[in-house]
Amino acid sequence: MAAEQPFTLAVPDADLELLHKKLDSVRFPDELEGAGWNYGAPLSDIKRLVDHWKNGFDWRKAETEINKLPMFTRDIDVDGFGTLNIHYVHQKSQVKNAIPLLFVHGWPGDFLEVRKLLPILTASDADHPSFHVVAISLPGFGFSEAPKKPGFAGPQYAQVFNKLMLSLGYEEYVYQGGDWGHILGMHAVNIYGHKHIKAWHTNMPMYRMPTLFQHPLLFLDMLRMPITFALNKTAKAQFQRGNDWRKTGMGYFIEQATKPQTLGYSLADSPVGLLAWIYEKLVTWTDKYPWSDDEVLEWISVYWFSRAGPAAAGRIYYEMTEGNQGDIFRGTKWTSVPVGASYFPGELARMPKGWAYTLGKLVFESEHDKGGHFAAFEQPEKLAGDLRKMFGKGGPAHGVVSGKNGYD
Amino acid sequence: MSNWARPFTVDVSDADLELLRKKLELVRFPDELQGADWEYGVPLEDIKRLTSHWRHSFDWRKAEAEINKFPQFTTDIEVDDYGALNVHYVHQKSTVENAVPLLFVHGWPGHFLEVRKILPLLTAASAEHPSFHVVAPSLPGFGFSEAPSKPGFAGYRYAELLHKLMLFLGYEEYVYQGGDLGHVLGVYVANAYGHKHLKAWHSNMPFYRPPSLLSNPLLFLELLTMPFNKTLSEQLSAATRFRKKGMGYYQVQATTPQTLGYSLADSPIGLLAWIYEKLYKAVDHYPWTDDEVLEWISVYWFSRPGPAANVRIYYELTGGNAHDLFEGTRWTSVPLGVSFFPGEPVRLPKSWAHLIGNVVFQSEHDAGGHFAAFEQPEKLASDLRKMFGRGGPAYRVISGKDGYA
Asked: Cβ of B186 under 8 Å from any chain A Cβ?
């Protein structure tokens, strides 16, 4: 069982060569006149990005920058799944009593979503708390191994998280996540809450709809929605967006939740196929983020060169929904573990604000006027600001981790 | 604009063949979960085997030569607001002068070649059964037809194109056979041109909107009592399973076909897997050979507008998943025949066929699936012969063309 090893990203030359050979043989589709973004990622965007990928983008330079992050791998044993070699960033703060924080990405995200947050969270300053940050590559993503058999779901991911943090000496820690990072956070908190996870924060607060028995007041709220919407145009618009997204934005979800292998052949074999599949989300899920071609291509390249290959990542949808049959939150319920929620306007599925109470003991809420789904990447100052408020002196989750309140 | 039936031969360029060969050589396969089998999609060993066959054994030129034995043509058809679309089709006349003109329409992921086995049966002359003149087009965006160049080419545009093709060929009155989207488009043709031109039609995938209290009170009550009706439940459970587990392609194609299209245009194995999943799942124990599968996929790979164009039909028919496939259509009294094949995944209770149209013929089989014309050509041809033949419920729907010498 391999203990912690430092990790240096070094894509073999042969892999780079294959990518370029494929890019040289690319075959583009046609496009409807005036399609814009209505049918998916526009041809002119994809052509421009492919051209840059062939001629301008420097992977080795990007790799060198990534390698400036303190990265490691270690073996984690998961009951029933054997050993998985897990990749992670681990940046300690100079503040000895910094708060251990586990940052968990989603799809189509990766560990690098932490990169802009890292210097802010680990900074030492009398005015705000500091954090020791661990940013994991989820199994099947980035440079972590993927599970080899079916059934790797909520409890398994949670086990990986907890064992990783314990192995780093963090008996108690806090957690931040969005997208799958949020959903898995709910699972992790249900199993390891209080004992290990002392508080958590989400930038994609969502959960099951409230039921009459579990949350009668919220349930009544839900019944009153038509009236609420008549009076509150913002609430109505937000609900409408969520509704529209369910009708028109969930194709990727259903496919990955039912046939991730079928889709996987395209993603593994075609750089432009993978590019389009992910780029579409990078643009449509962010709030006017000014993507540079280099940023996009670096993001896609991490998927292209991922350790398990690009087909593995989408399986999380299948496993967490049991092949689109079940509830992603199965086995979880409200806990009294303190939770903080940040609302970013560009986020996809928006719950009415009161529903965050269904997640846990809601101690912190923050509403922003900018930022979307990839909050840590788009608005690192705002997200870090929220974490500092939540965990800092006078904050509602200050001192949750014994002996590690973020200040020396 | 050329308004004549130009004879057509499939003739893929050497450059295109070479590009395919090169891409197959550079293929990069994904991994697979242990014991996954078909649970997560097409198994890796199937794709690896088919890829190897495609690289080393499959002979496209031989397949092409066989395809070219069918009488194929292209013609420009003018569609309102879209200009002229060059349409590719098979047109096989019967030796019986008064044969019944029949339009055969494929769906997705089908193509015009689905007619190939049923063609000789339908066009055969006999005193025992009617004969047909058969027209089997490539839908716009599929096979060797041009694709529409602008958005909005929805149900009634397809119907217009199909109808004008029949008129162009001299068939003022005609009948129609379709399954999958061929069935869906049949509903549109019946709505727009029923009675006057479309005299009767047949579907091997009879389905429509579910009944509502106002539109079909009796069937609606049937729907409500479903939990207590075992047969109905069973019939619907297969459909429900398909809806839950097999509709990912539909959601993607109806909302982001362009995004998907980059994969289908660029990756032969991506295209292979995407389509083969349906070829495998939607048939009833059909013994696909690797050559059959690869020929089928190759027609998509080498299609005239490229493989990204065909998936747009789902977006256009549903308004980007804003509504169902049948928007703007209603029940019509045009005589309709329906055939039920046990392996059809899109399966509704038989009684619901009456929601579509004036059902005059029904047939139930014990073998065959979604690609009925390809899997069970004799059964399907026999149904059409019974429906349109002497003593049949749609005999002589076209005056002067009863199908017999």
From this structure: no
CA distances from residue B138 to B86, B88, B277 in whole angstroms, order as listed: 10, 6, 22
- Give me the total of CB pairs closer than 8 Å, taking one residue from chain A and one from chain B: 221
Candidates B249, B266, B274: best to mutate against A (most CBs of A within 10 A) is B266
Task: Report chain B residues whose CB lies below 8 A from the CB of A256.
Answer: 248
Give residue-wise pLDDT tens across range B252-292: 999 999 999 999 999 999 999 999 999 999 999 999 999 99
Residues B211-230, mean pLDDT to the nearest whole number: 75
Res. A221 pLDDT band, cuts 50 70 90: confident
Contacting B residues, span 239-278, partner chain A, CB-CB under 8 Å: 244-249, 251-274, 277
pLDDT for res B273? 98
* A188 backbone φψ class: left, alpha, beta (φ>0; ψ -120 to 50): alpha
Does the beta-carbon distance from B252 to A255 stay under 8 Å?
A: yes
Spatial separation of the C-alpha atoms in residues B388 and B393, rounded to whole Å: 7
Q: Which of the two residues, B1 and A382, has the higher pLDDT score?
A: A382
Q: Which residues of A touch B278 (CB under 8 A)?
A: none
Contact A146, A139 (CB under 8 A): yes
Q: Are A263 and A256 in contact (CB under 8 A)?
A: yes
What's chain B's average pLDDT? 95
Please report the pLDDT score of residue B96 as a whole number: 97
ipTM given for this complex: 0.95
Residues 6+ apart with CB under 8 A from A295: none
Radius of gyration of the CA atoms of chain A, in A: 21
Q: Nearest CB to A262: which of B148, B261, B273?
A: B273
Interface of B with A in 11-30 (CB under 8 A): 19, 22-23, 26-30
Strand ranges in B60-215 using DSSP code E only, listed in sequence order: 72-79, 83-92, 100-105, 132-137, 174-178, 198-203
C-beta atoms of A262 and B315 within 8 A: no
Q: How far apart are the first and last CA of chain B?
A: 37
Cβ atoms B101, B163 nearer than 8 A: no
What is the pTM assigned to this prediction? 0.95
pLDDT band at B2 (very low <50, low <70, confident <90, very high): low
Contacts of A394 (CB under 8 A, 6+ apart): none
Residue pair A5/A64 in contact (Cβ under 8 Å)? The answer is no
Q: Which residues of A touch B36 (CB under 8 A)?
A: 150, 261
